[in-house]
Write a structure and sequence with these properties.
The complex is a heterodimer. By secondary structure, chain A is mostly helical. Chain A contains 15 helices and 3 strands. Helix content of chain B is 33%, strand content 14%. Classes of the chains: A mainly alpha, B alpha/beta. Chain B: Keywords: Ribonucleoprotein, Ribosomal protein, Transferase.
């Protein structure tokens, strides 16, 4: 090398970035050099574009090198304080799409008959679905014994809906455990896996333990929910009239029971529904609201009182499921709902 | 928002109209009570930023009862802003000029001193006597209990009531009651 000695020396000294001529004050107040901001903006825009095109790498936990599937499977049961049969649990977490993909992959690699010793969770999923549906129906009937059968089925539909079950599945950490083609797993895949986990628990620890699991994770989703947000009652007036007619009562009569600020823009009126001089329910009428709507609200309130689903009823007894009378008897249908029979039913 | 929630909302935030009979009541103690209603502190939903005060209609403000020597001793100060513009008005003088002012000033001074004060005062309707326009009477939905029940004077009783009132003893028939 024919470089001067000074340059040779430079190779061994630490590299000092040439400082721009920014005043000392500017340095103190944190003014960075002019390329920094545009550089960061470019990076951010690039990131956004990549996100749009789906070029960003997935953040699957299994992509990292220290991922240990065996210990995750072991930890899954311990986390939930449940004893799972390990081979069954592994099967429960395999989506059929994963087997298809693996077979194809091995065939591409030149394996004529791929020797895959795994089966998917379709069978387990169906089994788990039945268990959840069966127990949810019995439980809701036992805790809402006066609620019409239509309301019960609406609640059960909500409890077994895809959105709710997939949310629960994500909650117990199935997202990273499921072996599936796509990542993140779709709603259906998570639901299938969750139902399979329930079925595996049934096979490993017995039905009673499985019921406790379903109660703890699925049925408790009813806590804090308004039944009538889930079960929409269309036309409460005609339903109430029909019930009164069926029970041989007189037609109900709406009355104005309270009013305030009649000549003001903030006038409020309270309408109540009476049947045979007995109070049944109340509704409000305010500015911009018609009288019919107030009567409809009153009828709706009367229905919720009849069905014993007001906000004042005691909470669902999740702690004492053994005290509930779980059976296959259906609740009264709404077309044939009897006031006298309902008054004889004792709620726990 | 479901129908039940909307009903709950209106039942909670609907404005009430209260009647308060100020006859023979102490206006300063009454103001303590009235201010709770017009600023909404009597409600569990109260919050300084929550506009939940109710209307109060005060009647018979002409017949208020000031304690002790207050009619002669209480002085209302006013200054016109010009030199020598200060004036001191006694309570009885003010009451003679406008029989609603003592109650109004009592409530106004009891309220918190902030920008909400005028708005709260707008919910206070004071009438000197028990003659209230019908448009306001129709709004009423409740009544505030008086601090003290108005006692019944002897001349308010009828002769029959006085005669039938139980006595501790009867005068002898030949006893002459000196007038």
């Amino acid at each position: 090398m024919s470089l001067p000695k000074a340059f040779q020396l430079l190779r061994f000294t630490t590299y000092v970035a040439p400082r721009r001529l920014i005043s000392a004050t500017a340095c103190t107040y944190g003014i960075k050099s002019r390329w920094q901001m545009p550089y960061r903006v470019t990076l951010k825009n690039r990131m956004k574009e990549m996100e749009k095109k789906g070029l960003l790498p997935t953040n699957a936990r299994s992509d990292f090198i220290e991922w240990n599937y065996d210990s995750e499977i072991y930890a899954f049961g311990k986390r939930l304080h449940e004893e799972f049969d390990e081979s069954l649990l592994r099967q429960a977490l395999i989506d059929p799409s994963y087997i298809t993909r693996e077979t194809l992959r091995q065939q591409e690699l030149g394996v004529e008959v791929p020797a895959l010793q795994m089966s998917g969770n379709s069978e387990l999923s169906t089994e788990g679905k039945d268990i959840i549906f069966d127990y949810a129906t019995k439980f809701v009937r036992a805790t809402h014994r006066v609620l019409p059968e239509e309301g019960v089925s609406a609640l059960v539909d909500y409890l077994t809906s895809e959105e709710l079950l997939s949310e629960i599945g994500h909650g117990i950490g199935l997202k990273d455990l499921i072996l599936t083609e796509e990542y993140p797993p779709s709603q259906v895949t998570v639901v299938n896996a969750f139902q399979s986990v329930v079925a595996v628990l049934n096979r490993s620890s017995g039905l009673s333990r499985c019921h406790i699991f379903v109660k703890d994770f699925v049925l408790t989703q009813l806590v804090g929910k308004n039944i009538y947000d889930i079960w929409k009652i269309e036309d409460p007036v005609s339903i109430l009239s029909n019930i009164l007619l069926q029970n041989g009562r007189e037609a109900f009569e709406p009355r104005l029971v309270f009013q305030s600020g009649k000549n003001t823009i903030q006038a409020v009126y309270q309408v109540a529904v009476y049947c045979e001089k007995q109070f049944m329910g109340t509704g409000m009428k305010w500015y911009g609201e018609t009288v019919n709507a107030a009567v409809e609200q009153a009828a709706w309130d009367a229905l919720s009182r009849l069905f014993q689903t007001t906000e004042a009823v005691s909470p669902i007894p999740f702690e004492k499921p053994e005290q509930l009378n779980l059976n296959d008897n259906k609740n009264m249908p709404i077309d044939n709902w009897s006031i006298d029979r309902a008054s004889n039913i004792v709620m726990c | 928002m479901s129908a039940i929630r909307r009903v709950q909302q209106w039942a909670t935030f609907g404005r009430m109209w209260y009647l308060y009979d100020a006859k023979w009541q102490n206006p300063f103690d009454s103001a303590d009570k009235i201010k709770e209603y017009i600023s909404g502190t009597h409600k569990p939903i109260y919050h300084p930023l929550n506009d939940c005060g109710d209307h109060v209609v005060v009647i018979n403000s002409r017949h208020i009862a000031l304690p002790g020597m207050e009619w002669e001793r209480r002085v209302y100060f006013h200054h016109t802003g010009y030199p020598g513009g200060a004036s001191w008005t006694l309570a009885w003088e003010l009451h003679r000029k406008d029989p609603t002012l003592v109650v109004r000033k009592a409530v106004y001074s009891k309220l918190d001193k902030n920008l909400l004060r005028r708005g709260k005062m707008a919910r206070l309707h004071i009438f000197a006597d028990d003659e209230v326009p019908n448009s306001i009477l129709e709004n009423l939905s409740g009544q505030i209990r008086q601090l003290r029940a108005v006692p019944k004077r002897l001349d308010h009783y009828t002769d029959e009531e006085i005669k039938s009132f139980p006595r501790i003893f009867d005068w002898p028939k030949d006893y002459v009651i000196p007038n």
